[in-house]
Amino acid sequence: MKKLSIILVLAAGVTIVGCSDVKRKPGSVYMPDMAYSRAYETYADHSNLAEQGIFYNSQPVSGTIARDRVLPFSIKKDAAGDTVNYYAARQVQNPLPPLNEKEMKEVERLYLVNCGICHGPKLDGNGPIYKGGEGPYPAKPAQLVGDAKYESMPEGQMYYSVEYGKNLMGSYASQLSSKQRWSIIHYIKAKQGKTSAAPAAAATPTAAQDSTGTEKK
């Protein structure tokens, strides 16, 4: 009986000690950054990170490409008064494949929303802002279809203007993603191709016709 009492007392003592709030020093952590995550929620307060010696600028890691994006434009913006890079952009090829019918409809919508106000729904430079000279803007915007200057302009040079802006046209880099900008240039070139492919030989008189196009008698 006496032995049993001693055993019960010891067991109770072990239980009390085991359940007490004893502060234990943890052992070494092999990979503390994984054990104690530094991850922050998107809209959490990041203002105290610098105080902790953590660099964070909310920008993507340099050299990375976001999903569904194309490689960054390789040509830098010209310094004021310079045009070297503008002409160097002629060598840059459109990285996107030609648009299919479904994609063309979506890109047409993007064009009308972002570009049509100036260059017009028909790409003739007669958008609402000009309106045949009666609109609020007195100078006619670039006529993308029907003007040899723009129909012969390489895609890379055209992209430069959309990326950085050119003359009175501002940059659209904040309104459109790089993929959308290249897609719109595909759309413009497709429209230009339709007009340039129109037969023009019929207007040239043949040897059997006079200058008016009527047959000689």
Automatic annotation (TrEMBL):
Domain Cytochrome c residue range list: 102-192
Region (Disordered): 193-217
Signal peptide: none
UniProt feature, compositional bias: Low complexity: 197-208
Key words, A-Z: Heme, Iron, Metal-binding
Any GO molecular function: metal ion binding
SUPFAM superfamilies noted in UniProt: Cytochrome c
Protein name: Cytochrome c
Species whose genome carries this gene: Filimonas effusa
